[in-house]
Design goal:
mainly alpha, globular
Length: 66
């Protein structure tokens, strides 16, 4: 999977539930809430005050190692 800032969080989790740790590390603890099914990484990072580019980079590195 290739992740972008426009990727919906739920899609990332559906692809590999183990990616949840990357969201938890930056304070996104509501991975099962309805927002995770509709919010993009960029939207969620804006709400949580975190760097979307950094999260996307970590997720893509994780997926490239699989």
């Amino acid at each position: 999977m290739e992740v972008t800032k426009n990727t919906v969080i739920g899609d990332v989790l559906d692809c590999d539930i183990e990616t949840g740790r990357f969201f938890l590390e930056i304070g996104m603890h509501c991975l099962a809430c309805p927002g995770a099914r509709s919010e993009t990484i960029e939207q969620a990072c804006a709400v949580h005050g975190t760097d979307a580019d950094e999260l996307v980079e970590k997720l893509n590195a994780y997926f490239s190692e699989k």
